[in-house]
Amino acid sequence: MKISSPHAGTGLMCRPLGAALLVHPPEGPSATVLELARTLPPEPGYTVVVVDPPELGGTALAEELAALVPDRRPLRLVLSRAGTGGPRSLAYALAERKQTEVIAPDGEVRPVADGFAFVAGGAGWLRFRPGGPPRPAGLRYPVPAWEPGTPLRRLAPGAGLVVEPIPAGLWLRPGSHPDPAPVLGLPCQAEMLTVVLEPSVPVPEICRLLAALPATARTRVRLIPHGTHERAGEPVGQLVADESGAPVTVHTGLIGWAFATVLSYWPRRVPMPAVPKVVRYRAPLPGLAEPHPGVFRLTEDIIVETVQSGLWVRDSTEPMNGGEIRAVPPDPHRLRVTVGDPGTPPSRTLADAAAGLVERLEPAARQAAQLVFAETPPVEEEPVTQWMRVETAPAEEPEEVPGADRIAPDHRSGPAEHEWLRRTLGSRFDGYAGAVSRLLAQRPGLRGEEETTRFSEAVITDLVAVRAYAEGTSQGFDRALRTGTLGAFRPYAGCIVSGLRRLPTHRGPVLTSATLDDAQRARYRLGEVLTERGLLHALATPFVELPGTVEFFVLALTARRTGFLTGGEGPEQERVIFPPDTRFKVLAVTEGRVLLREVTGAGDGQDHPALARLTEVVAARDKVAPGRREELETPARFDHPIGLA
Predict the structure, then answer these.
(1) What confidence tier does 56 reach under pLDDT thresholds 50, 70, 90?
(2) Could you tell me the residue ranges of all domains in the chain?
(3) Pick the CATH number of 505-638 from 3.90.176.10, 3.50.50.60, 3.40.190.10, 3.40.50.300
(4) What is the DSSP string of 63-125?
(5) Is the separation of the CB atoms in 122 and 179 below 8 Å?
(6) Which of 26-30, 404-408, 453-457, 515-519 has the lowest mean pLDDT?
(7) Residues 45, 50, 55, 57: what is their CA dihedral angle, to the nearest 10 degrees?
């Protein structure tokens, strides 16, 4: 918008307003000039003069301005085209008249949000000094930290592309001119260089532009895709990170209803779904509790998480295949509200909560919202309103032959598995990692001999996996591990098993249970050795209420203590987890109890001492009435028939 006024006559007035001097006709300034003068910040060493003049020639107006601005400090003259014409310009005449430096625009001054002024359609701000030629002084005032060295004029780098300066930074687009209005309206940020990308721009050209920027600007870049940028199922931010080998920040500034507003992509070392970290976000509704960053409590048992594609409504338990939801790229035309977990039909309660959430969203978000069930039951679709359309995400197929996909008990996790876990947990990884780091500071023995940065990261990642698993209640992963059909869960299993190896061993009696039918009971025969293919949870205390119909008393040798890792309260502080493929020998069987010992080698010499010790624990448990035993927070984790898949 041009900063000028068609008022006739002379007799200009000058008055301070904000950090500037405002020069205007007697009848007052225009609303645009008034607002600009109020918002412009001061410039150290300069007097900022905002002018809304009558139609006067350069020399006449220069004389009036020289009289109205009496001090001899350098000036920044905010008046469209005051610097156009070089030696014949108003700015040059004023610099000569006052014998001081004058910075003025060669082009139109456009007010920008947050107190910036951008010069469009010319050479930008020019610096005039008495007796000398004008010199470039940038395009923006105040000068952003990233501007020096960035293009000041439109460039044509090739491939039919144009790099065009805009108030917020740069616009990389094809030669044909898209609608500039949304792009020109983006605010300028002093510490962040915005690069707007059109959908047809090739990823190598984006990387070439970023590489050509000066280092001070390159480290401050944030990309803003304009339009749909998904390419072969991948968001453009991830593709640029992979191609450039450097982290990339993506802003959703052109999607007005987005809740995840800033995303961070890291180069992938292995092929895997692109799950960015949500760096900045806003709450879907005011007043919601936020137990984790970007995760809000909708009801007692239902949460809504901000993800790159929109919102995810799910149970409070963290599913380990959540990366499938977090990897869905944003769509500029709709707000995706995903309901439930992949591979699990959502309950009616969950669907109703999601529909109620959409009804309460702000108008723009509500209009763009679309419910998407992670998996729809095959019977009938949920009822939808006019603004909803149900989609179904296909369940992930196992990656290997069923029954053969297992993790060895001595497995050590690698970088690919660590990468998978960090991306799958998303923003929750940082919270878990912080808690684990504090624990390692208190218990340095958990680090073992791995003291290098790379090894320290491996320790933290493995223990994060164990903590996330121990806090969960979903049975899908446990079933996949026991049946040897890990598929997409394989990296998760690798980190958990590797993490368990780092934890202290518990040697002694433990207790767990199972709900058994008659056929399952018959499988526990005296002297039988059973192999548990999954992760067996047990408790190193006999005074706890268990969910099953049969109690298992086990003498453990290699179980790993995990209670201190989760930081929970109550009897689950005494939790232990046996690694996969642990073997157990049946020592005694009664109507409601099975006594076993862990088998680590050949020979039956340990049976009698083990049975005697377990019998003592049974007697101690019987002295405590069931009503006086402690309750468990996650009883389902302690309800599994040992050795039966």
Answers:
(1) low
(2) 13-141, 155-265, 415-501, 505-638
(3) 3.90.176.10
(4) HHHHHHS-S-S-EEEESTTTTTTGGGSHHHHHHHHHTS-EEEEEEEEEEETTTEEEEEEEEEE
(5) no
(6) 453-457
(7) 10
